[in-house]
Write a structure and sequence with these properties.
Elements lengths: L10 H10 L17 E3 L2 E8 L5 E2 L2 E4 L3 E8 L6 E3 L10 E4 L4 E7 L4 E6 L9 E6 L3
Parallel strand pairs: 2-5, 4-10
Antiparallel strand pairs: 1-2, 2-3, 5-8, 6-7, 9-10
Bound molecules: copper (II) ion.
């Protein structure tokens, strides 16, 4: 049996999150759409971009239970970024990635649910995202 990966775009939930921040300037940059997920050797491959707008693109990652490889591409020209999942062990985080560089981390998903990830340097500027682990 073949099971296709299903992408879920949690636009509504993200909009609520952004609104909750109380910013009066509106949202700048930062996509709320999920990226296409491909699987290599059973590992779900995710690419997330981060640049000089201090946002993750996409900000929502939806995966199935199992192994996930997240590659963070810093396509900015200034600050470094990382991608930390506080609910996972430190070793599962994408380390600090300089402008023009990329880095990745591979990990086993936590139980189905929604988990926040952050760039520890720019969390207060709103560089946060959500990992959604679908039910198995
Ligand atoms: Cu950052």
């Amino acid at each position: 049996m073949t099971r296709r990966l299903i992408l879920t775009v949690a636009t509504a939930a993200t909009a609520v999150l952004l609104a909750a921040c109380g910013s009066s300037g509106g949202t700048k940059g930062g996509s709320t759409a999920s990226a296409a997920v491909s699987t290599v050797d059973g590992v779900q491959q995710i690419t997330v971009k981060a640049g000089d707008n201090y946002r993750f693109d996409p900000a929502t990652i939806t995966v199935h239970p199992g192994k996930v490889k997240i590659t963070l591409i810093n396509d900015g020209q200034g600050a470094p970024h990382n991608l930390q999942l506080p609910s996972l062990p430190v070793g599962d985080w994408v380390p600090l990635t300089s402008a023009g560089q990329s880095a990745s981390a591979t990990f086993e998903t936590p139980a189905p649910g929604t988990y926040q990830f952050v760039c520890s340097i720019h969390e207060r500027q709103g560089q946060v995202g959500k990992l959604v682990v679908l039910p198995s």
